[in-house]
Specification:
The protein has 430 residues and is of the alpha/beta class. Helix content is 44%, strand content 13%. It contains 18 helices and twelve strands. The strands form three sheets. Strands 2-1-3-4-5-6 form a six-stranded parallel sheet. It has a four-stranded parallel sheet with strand order 9-8-7-10, sandwiched between helices. The radius of gyration is 22 Å and the shape is globular.
Length: 430
């Protein structure tokens, strides 16, 4: 079976959808499938080895080209040589580092345009993608990494005759952040264009139900395929860290809960009287995150806690595993409806107990698997109290870590994700 994933890249930091697609593609490739991972907008930034042959796949709908073609009619007719220059990996990665400078209005215009890509100002880019897919061999299945690409499905099916599988992965947060009228326009357009996809997949039961309700989709329209990870290198550390270390590993942003994590540590080390526990904070950081990071560092410095906090932004895979294996507890107190959270499974794979908000996908992943405890969302003091209680109970921590490790190795390996994917796409018409 020939499978093509169309996956937006970030260009400068790791993203869950890119890593999920790469892990799934790798497992399908090992199982004998012919798999291609094609980047859209920006190059992929992965913390694992790329799929064989990935370097030969061009970036489609390159972010610079898309921006210029939307704003300046001349660029809708430029020669292929100039397009290739503007789509070069180095230039796109440079643009990614400055993407926070793009206005919310521009994001809204571009997003709405992509839902109507077959009748938009970007038909030249669409033709390049369709022509490349035809030239390299018609796929049997085409996967859209996010429902924000739902506008592609109709043309892909009509031109290539292949079924389209669309994944959900955090679209609500992005769309809700757009200004009006783009927010409403894009939600409506996404619901309309998802009817062109043969199969809709969500990474958790929570997110399947949440998005079906928001989009008015019929019961059963969204199927669930849990995300998975490559388990190589992930393992519990022996002996446990001394003194205790609480870790955070996700995007270094307010939305991922970094501010609440720091507030909880201030409460643990202040009113709760902890004098020894340390903190390690790791994850992707962009220029747009720097003001928050400076403010949080200043708060920790003012509280006399800076020496107990280690910051490790933009980690490699090896450094990420090392960080996780050195933890006593793990928390990412996300403030939005998280669809899944690969970091949860990564911590579980290292046998680290979790303390997460009782919201979004976390009860499904953490409590059902017995891998940790959940606390009221948006309450740093409750998070700190849960930390204190677990730090005082090593036997309970050991049991939570054991059960989390068991769940990671039975429910969430990439191999299990690939097996589930193949079973779900097998009945699709081809």
């Amino acid at each position: 079976m020939k499978i093509v994933f169309l996956t937006p890249g970030t260009g400068s930091y790791h993203c869950g959808a890119c890593m999920r697609d790469n892990a799934l593609a790798q497992e399908l490739h090992r199982a004998g499938e012919d798999v291609t991972l094609a980047p859209l907008y920006l190059p992929h930034t992965l913390d694992e080895a790329a799929l064989p042959g990935a370097g030969a796949v061009p970036v489609f709908f390159g972010g610079i080209n898309v921006f210029l073609q939307q704003k300046i009619p001349l660029f809708r007719h430029t020669p292929a040589a100039l397009d290739r220059l503007l789509d070069s990996t180095g230039l796109l990665r440079w643009a990614a580092r400055h993407s926070h400078m793009t206005s919310a209005r521009t994001h809204g215009e571009m997003t709405r345009e992509m839902f109507h890509v077959d009748s938009s100002r970007l038909t030249k880019e669409l033709e390049k993608l369709l022509g490349w897919l035809e030239h390299t061999g018609r796929p049997d299945v085409i996967c859209l990494s996010t429902a924000l690409l739902a506008g592609f499905a109709r043309q892909l099916r009509a031109r290539l005759g292949a079924p389209v599988v669309t994944f959900f992965q955090g679209e609500d947060t992005f769309l809700d952040g757009l200004p009006e009228p783009y927010r409403s326009d894009c939600w409506r357009a996404m619901g309309e264009r998802l009817t062109d996809s043969n199969l809709l997949l969500a990474p958790s039961r929570f997110y399947a139900g949440y998005m079906a309700e928001r989009l008015g989709l019929p019961p059963g329209r969204v199927q669930v395929l849990w995300n998975g990870i490559q388990l190589d290198g992930y393992a519990p550390a022996e002996p446990p860290a001394e003194p205790a270390v609480i870790g955070y590993l996700a995007r270094l942003s307010r939305e991922k809960g970094l501010e609440q994590f720091v507030e909880a540590f201030l409460h643990l080390a202040g009113p709760l009287g902890d004098r020894t526990t340390k903190v390690r904070i790791g994850g992707a950081a962009t220029a747009g995150d720097e003001p928050l990071l400076r403010r949080l560092r200043a708060r920790l410095e003012a509280a006399g806690l800076a020496e107990r906090v280690e910051w490790t932004p933009n980690l490699s895979r090896e450094a990420k595993v090392t960080l996780l294996r050195g933890l006593t507890l793990f928390s990412v107190p996300v403030t939005y409806p998280e669809a899944f959270g690969l970091y949860v499974v990564e911590a579980m794979a290292c046998g680290v107990p979790l303390v997460q908000p009782r919201a979004a996908a976390f009860p499904e992943l953490v409590e059902e698997c017995g891998a940790g405890v959940c606390v009221p969302p948006g309450d740093p003091a409750a998070l700190a109290r849960a930390w204190r209680d677990l730090l005082a109970d090593p036997a309970r921590r050991a049991e939570l870590g054991r059960r989390g490790r068991e769940a990671a190795t039975t429910r969430f390996p990439a191999r299990v994700m690939a097996e589930g994917f193949r079973a779900l796409v097998a009945p699709l018409p081809r």
